[in-house]
Amino acid sequence: xxxxxxxxxxxxxxxxxxxxxxxxxxxxxxxxxxxxxxxxxxxxxxxxxxxxxxxxxxxxxxxxxxxxxxxxxxxxxxxxxxxxxxxxxxxxxxxxxxxxxxxxxxxxxxxxxxxxxxxxxxxxxxxxxxxxxxxxxxxxxxxxxxxxxxxxxxxxxxxxxxxxxxxxxxxxxxxxxxxxxxxxxxxxxxxxxxxxxxxxxxxxxxxxxxxxxxxxxxxxxxxxxxxxxxxxxxxxxxxxxxxxxxxxxxxxxxxxxxxxxxxxxxxxxxxxxxxxxx
Amino acid sequence: xxxxxxxxxxxxxxxxxxxxxxxxxxxxxxxxxxxxxxxxxxxxxxxxxxxxxxxxxxxxxxxxxxxxxxxxxxxxxxxxxxxxxxxxxxxxxxxxxxxxxxxxxxxxxxxxxxxxxxxxxxxxxxxxxxxxxxxxxxxxxxxxxxxxxxxxxxxxxxxxxxxxxxxxxxxxxxxxxxxxxxxxxxxxxxxxxxxxxxxxxxxxxxxxxxxxxxxxxxxxxxxxxxxxxxxxxxxxxxxxxxxxxxxxxxxxxxxxxxxxxxxxxxxxxxxxxxxxxxxxxxxxxxxxxxxxxxxxxxxxxxxxxxxxxxxxxxxxxxxxxxxxxxxxxxxxxxxxxx
Amino acid sequence: xxxxxxxxxxxxxxxxxxxxxxxxxxxxxxxxxxxxxxxxxxxxxxxxxxxxxxxxxxxxxxxxxxxxxxxxxxxxxxxxxxxxxxxxxxxxxxxxxxxxxxxxxxxxxxxxxxxxxxxxxxxxxxxxxxxxxxxxxxxxxxxxxxxxxxxxxxxxxxxxxxxxxxxxxxxxxxxxxxxxxxxxxxxxxxxxxxxxxxxxxxxxxxxxxxxxxxxxxxxxxxxxxxxxxxxxxxxxxxxxxxxxxxxxxxxxxxxxxxxxxxxxxxxxxxxxxxxxxxxxxxxxx
Lengths: 278, 338, 285
Known about the structure:
Chain A is mostly helical. Chain A has helices at 12-41, 43-50, 53-86, 92-98, 101-104, 107-118, 125-130, 139-156, 159-164, 168-175, 180-209, 228-237, 241-272. The radius of gyration of chain A is 23 Å and the shape is globular.
């Protein structure tokens, strides 16, 4: 029976109206088109489009390379964060700023640059091919591009945690006789896990949808080195809206699952590790 | 400008902040809202200011219903606990703010503005700091700027939310005295919120003691101390001994298992006695300079009895281990609360 | 938010470990970040300055630059206004569905740029929902500038809001309330109190939003139709040049974008530093 209470601060109506209409226009209505389209395709057609051999191959390439890139960054990202937070060396601030380069650099620029570098006559490519390996135009190339793209996530998610880490637990481990390496592995690493996993999930979600950085260096051969986003574009060009939609939905679902995992992980962290969640 | 609150109620989603408040504040009065955290005193202050709107009830300024009037139109000065100074503006600009945002034709200009702001800064003794920024000031100085800023718009009501809560003890004392002096000069109706009983007693003409969204008692400080309306008020205003009938019936004449006598330490009299019948045993005797604090234990009580005697009153010299008789000069009887 | 006390020197990692980690980290950074950066500029000037200048000033390049700037000039201010409004709404009021709103704002980050383009094609494309209606009224959205603006707006719209929300949350609303009691009206309070408070956070968000708006590739690629001189943004122009084996020209235009990226990094650090200074913790009583 309460009267709806008035707000003392002004602007509720205005900002609510503005936000909702903008959201509806830019995000909700177009997304509704996607949902509608998937609904009108019909479950059978949807399933066959989403699980066609070419699509399955594309998922393999996309998820596989994204996971591999994530794993590489899983090791090297926190390592880089450690070096940036704990060590002092000339150029540290510069490198710290540079970590955000993959965020700031347009994906197409990254794409052509990486391709030029790893192609057979490229600065790196020539050494690699001399050794008998090929990176450009293969899934390996895709992985390299995705390493570039997801690098910042695994550094930036770990850095703040490292910065806030109180030295107490390390000092306690030292007084108990643990060597430095042992301390790093058994004491510090466990406190970083939630942040590392969060970074991994964010990186994965981004890598799965990545387009511009990848299509130049990938071979784009169907069934071999074709990523899912490219498949979507190809189908669109052929006016196969239904096929494109089906694959898009699969990608979206995987991103949402990754993000859901992050949210659950963060909830778990707060509940079970409240001491760390300062 | 008098303030009248009638049946003010305010609810959060899962708790009641104000439970039907009736309060009348006289024009020119300095009233304190005193209570523990969570009792609703800040909420009540914000309702008066128009920073919150109550679910029920009426707010009147000098008889005019302002319950639904927006804060900016209420002409109240508000001083926040953490000052809420505009950090990007100088002290001068902070104080001038209320004058600058007025409607075009009501705005004082150039020299007039400088004069008014200058006068106010002199009033709060911060004239020399006019061009500094809040980050460069101490806590006490910031609070004075906040006060000057609130006074700049010549409010008819001044509201202060735990104004000295964030300051250290010495500064607090100085500012308290200074505020009282200011009020004596300006006579603006003022309401301030505090959880510090000493502060309320020192500053206020009248005090409203609040608990769980209700006003337990509204009276001047002396009355509150000598004639508390409830056990809560009694306990909140300072240390108090709570004696069961076994201890007090002799000299209060009030029987009944439920009657608890509340006696202040200053009013408790402990006299050495040979008989162990209703005696308490002295535990500690602490010399506090002008007074002596004695703690004694009695079988019928869990907490020790606390008595504060004036030095020189006890020629016999009470020592730990001694048996003492318990009596009181003054007391209040309340039924035992469950 | 102040950094924790550093461990005492007694706990420093042994020298061999430090050297190892440092070398690995620097090699990683060198290989993946520094080398590509150097490569862009190196390839751009491979065939001399004259060719570089020609590549970035020919008519198609100029058209691409113009279009890119136009798109940014529309989507960044629009997203800024939305960001401020949404942040005010979320941090100053209580209402049902707030968490849903916050999730919706984060949505574009979970969506592949290609899918961002796809949804607009499904809506406005020739075979889309509104396709026939648009054709009838001679309105072109897909394969025309409006489509590019919409897709870019979608992809960049969380940036400003996401920066402002935690900032305004941390700053609290006391100053706004003080302004109210002093008689300030809504707009007065906004210009005099709110904007100065959030200034650097707003700048930070705008810088990020702008960088992404200019550099967006996937979403724009889907909706643009790649019509030279008309619907090519700079990133698309780079792609066309590269696919035509006109490598140097492609890198020439790309180097402009890389320059912008570097400027973004610098401005970002600056704004971020100033923003952190404006948080309440930095004002100890």
